[in-house]
Design a protein that fits this description.
globular, Metal Binding Protein, Guanine Nucleotide Exchange Factor, Chain A, seven-stranded mixed sheet, mainly beta, three-stranded antiparallel sheet, 1 helix, about 130 residues, binds zinc ion
């Protein structure tokens, strides 16, 4: 059985996902740039019941980055743990930097390419979506 584990940088928060991540998107939106400090985020959707917080639930803090979107971070080291959309209570979005192992990852698209910095060059043939909702 597949068991992917993840943690924040300081390891006060630990999570587990019992599945491979089959729908990973690289997101270049400005919010991902600001909140990751980098050019893009590798984002995956996980069913809420597959996202298990093993420890550190009480060490999470949150930030509403847009009206429908709340981002949960470690209170101590500020690592992103997951994103919750009000409109999708049964789903959590995670960034792959959270993970400890290197799971089988299937990247399906580049999203929010309209906000991609010019200095990032995409060198593959995956779909490039200008936006994404
Ligand atoms: Zn932490
Ligand atoms: Zn984004």
């Amino acid at each position: 059985m597949i068991k992917i584990t993840g943690s924040c940088h300081c390891a006060r928060v630990k999570i587990q996902i019992p599945k491979n991540l089959n729908d990973v998107r690289l997101c270049y939106c400005q919010t991902c740039q600001k909140l990751s400090g980098s050019a893009f985020s590798a984002v995956s959707m996980v069913a809420a019941h597959d996202f298990i917080i093993l420890k550190g639930q009480d060490n999470l803090t949150h930030y509403k980055s847009s009206p429908n979107k709340t981002r949960f971070h470690c209170k101590t080291c500020f690592s992103p743990i997951y994103v919750q959309l009000d409109s999708k209570p049964n789903e959590k979005r995670i960034r792959l930097g959270l993970l400890n192992e290197e799971p089988t990852v299937n990247i399906t698209a580049h999203i929010w390419v309209s906000e991609k910095p010019d200095w990032v060059v995409i060198n593959d043939d995956l779909p490039q979506l200008q936006e994404f909702v």
